[in-house]
């Protein structure tokens, strides 16, 4: 079956008359915009490597279009779900931007690129309903956590092929602990070294890399902790998988900006 | 009995078996249409998920023949086409969304018709359907449609 050319002609004719078509739009009469369940746009600072990036986490009912606008109402992201995926719709959406080192993108330029203010997240549901949430971006970055592993401070060099490799060797129960983060970053963002930052959560991520059937495998233990918890014992079942580990502790403040400190450790050889 | 008619009779038995084994493919409308058109002839209709084949047995006037008939539409396409004819704009939008990327001429026809819908969301969705339809790309410039996703700001 072919498309009836009459339809095409009718379509062309009607399009030329579109400015005159009454815009009686029962859809637009509905001002109720559906909020997203989660709508966060935030910065992540890797304090160890010295890089910054912008991330977003958005979740809600199935959508086919997603946009983010900056405080000047300029569109900075436009996602259009197409074809068969459009029929299905998307729900959760997470992205991380590139994270060039400070040599390539100094923090003041990065922060100027993404000004503080209200960022608007808009979507369209599969039924054509509008979704909208707002999120505040701030330049307040939490101070970097200062973790220890069994009391040993962070290593300065975790690459065992580089000179100065100084991963601490630990034994027994492995406990990663850190002081509560109560201030903003001393040298980055705004305000700097200010009191009164409110921590939303901490996160501990421990990673071991080893081979399975000749293929590299990364095993990850990750836990999100409430602001009152500042230590975590790593389960033995996880530690049994390797003898060298990398870990990071992240502090997230209430606007979701987060700062990470990375380090590593080795387990003492039992034999 | 000729070799051809033997084959046809074998096919008839297989076809009957399939009719009993696969009632889910039944298209009553098609059966009634075939019955009313060919009730004075010997025929056999075999239906499956891909469509239907009509075997017309030889008569004094004409030799036997086989005709391929368009199959019943996939359930979701049929349901979506019903939705695009709804009085409610929201349902029309949903119907068009459910037809996104579907290689069906009726989906394209529906989108072309709804390009002038009074509701903006319906018009937008109709445009996306045309942009994503395999036969729609040829019409994009003729209709003056702009793919916003490819727009360079």
Written description of the protein model:
The complex is a heterodimer of chains A (271) and B (153). By secondary structure, chain A is mainly β. Helix content of chain A is 11%, strand content 41%. The longest helix of chain A is centred in the first third of the chain and has 12 residues, at 5-16. The model of chain A is unreliable at 5-30 (pLDDT under 50). In chain B, helix 4 runs parallel beside helix 6. A 3-stranded antiparallel β-sheet of chain B has the order 1-2-3. The A-B interface holds A 1-4, 7-8, 10-12, 14-15, 17-18, 21-28, 64, 75, 78, 80, 82-87, 89, 124, 126-129 and B 70, 88-91, 93-94, 97-102, 105-106, 108-109, 112-113, 115-116, 118-122, 124-125, 128, 131-132, 135, 139, 142-144, 148-149, 153.
At the fold tier of CATH, the topology name of the largest domain in chain A is: Immunoglobulin-like
Shape of chain A: globular
Largest sheet of chain B: 3 strands, antiparallel
The residue-averaged pLDDT of chain A reads 90
- The counted number of beta strands of chain A is 16
Largest interface: A-B, 37 and 39 residues
Q: Measure the end-to-end span of chain A.
A: 76 Å
Low-confidence stretches of chain A: 5-30
Structural class of chain B: mainly alpha
Overall pLDDT of chain B, averaged?
Answer: 80
Q: What is the CATH homologous superfamily assignment of the largest domain in chain B?
A: Leucine-rich Repeat Variant
Q: CATH class of the largest domain in chain B, anyone?
A: Mainly Alpha
């Amino acid at each position: 079956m072919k498309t009836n050319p009459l339809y095409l002609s009718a379509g062309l004719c009607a399009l030329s008359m579109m400015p005159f078509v009454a815009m009686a739009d029962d859809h637009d009469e509905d001002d109720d915009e559906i909020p997203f369940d989660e709508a966060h746009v935030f910065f992540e600072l890797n304090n160890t490597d010295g890089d910054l990036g912008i991330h977003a986490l958005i979740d809600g009912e199935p959508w086919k279009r997603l946009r983010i606008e900056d405080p000047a109402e300029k569109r900075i992201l436009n996602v259009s779900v197409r074809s068969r995926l459009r029929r299905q719709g998307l729900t959760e959406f997470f992205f991380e931007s590139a994270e060039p080192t400070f040599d390539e993108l100094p923090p003041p330029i990065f922060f100027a690129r993404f000004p503080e203010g209200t960022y608007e997240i808009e979507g369209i549901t599969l039924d054509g309903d509008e979704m909208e949430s707002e999120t505040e971006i701030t330049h307040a970055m939490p101070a970097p956590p200062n973790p220890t592993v069994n009391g040993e401070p962070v290593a300065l060099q975790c690459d065992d092929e580089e000179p100065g490799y100084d991963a601490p060797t630990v034994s027994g129960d492995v406990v990663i602990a850190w002081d509560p983060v109560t201030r903003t970053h001393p040298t980055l963002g705004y305000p700097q070294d200010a009191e009164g930052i409110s921590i939303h959560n901490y996160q501990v991520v421990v990673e071991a890399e080893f081979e399975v059937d000749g293929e590299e495998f990364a095993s990850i233990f990750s836990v999100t902790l409430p602001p009152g918890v500042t230590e975590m014992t790593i389960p033995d079942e996880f530690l049994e998988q390797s003898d060298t580990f990398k870990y990071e502790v992240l502090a997230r403040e209430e606007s979701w900006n987060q700062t990470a400190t990375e380090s590593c450790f080795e387990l003492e050889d039992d034999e | 009995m000729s070799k051809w008619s033997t084959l046809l009779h074998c096919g008839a038995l297989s076809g009957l078996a399939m009719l009993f084994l696969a009632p889910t493919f039944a298209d009553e409308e098609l059966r009634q249409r075939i019955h009313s058109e060919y009730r004075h002839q010997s025929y056999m209709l075999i239906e499956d998920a891909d469509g239907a084949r009509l075997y017309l047995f030889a008569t004094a006037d004409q030799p036997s023949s086989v005709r391929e008939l368009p199959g019943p539409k996939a359930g979701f396409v049929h349901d979506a086409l019903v939705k695009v004819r709804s009085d409610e704009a929201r349902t029309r939008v949903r119907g068009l969304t459910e037809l996104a990327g579907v290689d069906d001429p009726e989906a394209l026809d529906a989108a072309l018709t709804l390009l002038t819908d009074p509701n903006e969301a319906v018009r937008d969705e109709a445009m996306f359907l045309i942009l994503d339809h395999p036969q729609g790309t040829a019409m994009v410039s003729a209709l003056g449609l702009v793919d916003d996703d490819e727009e360079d700001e």
